[in-house]
Design brief:
- By secondary structure, this protein is of the alpha+beta class.
- The protein has a single domain (7-84), classed as RRM (RNA recognition motif) domain (Alpha-Beta Plaits, 2-Layer Sandwich), CATH 3.30.70.
- The chain has helices spanning 14-20, 35-46; strands spanning 7-10, 24-29, 50-58, 62-65, 68-71, 75-82.
- The chain has a four-stranded antiparallel β-sheet with strand order 1-2-6-3.
């Protein structure tokens, strides 16, 4: 049974759409998640075989609002490489 708290949402960007042609999908994941947890969650949720998981910590962008400095929250991205022939259907046609 996959843990639904690991994967927050898919990340839909131009670069992510280009990676889909290579069998790679991008997700925003929990800050405490590790590669093994992401692999198990994707395999359990989408019934696919995961070959590789790459993790990226993205620092929140700093901005100014008047005299205050604020920043967007930090996040963690996972780029998941699937076995050739596997697809995640929610990304198709986006």
């Amino acid at each position: 049974m996959p843990d639904f708290g690991i994967i927050n949402r898919p990340l839909i960007t131009e670069k992510g759409n280009l990676l889909q042609s290579e069998g790679k999908y991008v997700f925003i994941v929990s800050g405490r998640a590790n590669k093994h947890q992401v692999k198990e969650a994707v395999e359990g949720l989408f019934n696919v075989s995961v070959l590789e998981v790459n993790m990226i910590n993205v620092k929140g962008k700093a901005k100014r609002m008047g005299p205050r400095k604020v920043s967007a929250p930090d996040r963690k991205k996972a780029i998941v490489t699937l076995k050739p022939g596997d697809k995640i259907e929610i990304f198709e046609g986006v």
